[in-house]
Amino acid sequence: MTPKHNIHCLVPDLPSPSEVMPLLEEMHSNRWYSNFGPLVQRFERAMEAFLEQENGACGFGVATFSSATTALELAIRALEFEPGTKVLVPALTFPATALAVLNAGHEPVLIDVDAHTWELSPELAAKACAEATYGAVIPVAAYGRPIDGAGWAAFQEQTGVRVLMDVAAALGQQPIEDTLTYCFSLHATKPFGVGEGGLLVTQDAQLIDRSKSLSNFGFSGPAGVIQRQGTNAKFGEYYAAMGLAQIDRWPELIERRREVMNLYQQQLNKLDNRVGLQAGMGSYVPAVFPVYIKNGAEALIAALDAGGVQTRRWYLPPLYEHPALKGTKGAFGDDPSAFPVCEDLKQSLVGLPFHGFLSAEDIAKIISIVSEGVS
Ligand SMILES: *Cc1c(COP(=O)(O)O)cnc(C)c1O
After folding, report:
1. What residue's CA is closest to ligand 1, atom 5?
2. How confident is the model at residue 347 (pLDDT cuts 50, 70, 90)?
3. C-beta separation of 77 from 100 below 8 A
4. Which end of the chain has fewer CB atoms < 10 Å from its terminal CB, N or C?
């Protein structure tokens, strides 16, 4: 069987068995496999140090979960809003952002994104908050683009609306702001891939304690007694072993991804702005690589497909088009006309291959197909 695509869109880059083996041997001799074991604890402390070194986090606690989705859901539940509280969510995101709100017993309300960053801005959220009462807002680091923390810290301070950052794909890139709370993903497809897992990062020690307790059925305090109605959403020792090995690989991983981004940018520069990129690209390394061609997504996907290049339409369709989210309200109206930027991106964004195994030849081939498509 010949594969249809010889250039893949995303190839995970995780530690090899030999890199993880010493940690697995340690786990085996500990005979401790889950329930906040020694490797999970070591990984949490190591991530605190990592976030301080890479992103300036100071005095932050890190808690691990089975995924970013459960980290977000349990952080929301730990905040103990009234059931059915409205939570503002951008319509351009991975469905998990809205699912975490629904699974926590609240109402996601959708809002459009900014035309340049493709993210929800504090200005847009403030407009929504002037018209209705929200308990929280979940800005999303779209495609791994780090979110402007200062703007959101000011928003939270001025409105009193809690800000939970869904920065699932931005681990290592997202600067950490004192008063804000962050959820990162360790899924295999993210730049910092471990397999499955999520991190909650906050200075709020009570939020860490409560969400950890919720991830372990609601146990806390006296042994064998549940204090809240939790679930099982714990990280485990196998994944912590992968995570510890991945920390050591990170400098090389991110360097390689940066080289791939630079190659793309050099080649795209030759196309005289006929292909748009997410605002600020180059000052950070994205998780995936969507390009903007006005109303040209469908034709470009077909051309790349015919050339053996796999693409993905990350975060599309927008959340309001998913059958399972039908009936979800919009902050400024429920119909697609309330989301002009998402409607435009839907016709215009294509995720090009982006991972550390791409060669300069691969990128040249991809860009030559793109270039024919936009000429
Ligand atoms: C990947 C992703 C998630 C989900 O992360 P998991 O760890 O797989 O649950 C949530 N939100 C965004 C924006 C993502 O990109």
Report:
1. 68
2. very high
3. no
4. N
- Nearest alpha carbon to residue 75 among 84, 65, 89, 83: 65
Instruction: Return the closest-CA partner of residue 233 out of 26, 65, 31, 53.
Output: 65
Q: Is 92 in the pocket of ligand 1 (CB under 6 A)?
A: no
Any atom of ligand 1 within 6 Å of the Cβ of 355: no
CA 318 vs. chain centroid, Å, equals 16
CA 136 to chain centre: 18
Q: 241 falls in which pLDDT band (50, 70, 90)?
A: very high
CB 27 within 8 A of CB 371: no
Please say if the pLDDT value at position 1 is more than 70: no
Strand 181-185 to 198-202 pairing: antiparallel
Do 213 and 71 contact (CB within 8 A), yes or no? no
**In sequence order, what DSSP letters do the residues of 130-173 get, joined into one string?**
HHS--SEE--B-GGGPPP-HHHHHHHHHHH--EEEEE-TT-TTT
- The whole-angstrom separation of Cα 154 and Cα 147 is 13
Interatomic CA distance for residues 257 and 355, integer angstroms: 6
Dist CA 140 CA 118 (whole Å): 9
Return the closest-CA partner of residue 30 out of 39, 43, 21: 39
Q: How many other CB atoms sit within 10 Å of the CB of residue 115? A: 13
3-state secondary structure of 9: coil
Closest CA to 78 of 200, 222, 170: 200
Index of the ligand 1 atom closest to the CA of residue 140: 13
The confidence band for 373, taking pLDDT boundaries of 50, 70 and 90, is confident
**Which amino acid, 281?**
M
Residue among 306, 299, 278 nearest 374 (CA):
299
Q: How confident is the model at residue 263 (pLDDT cuts 50, 70, 90)?
A: very high
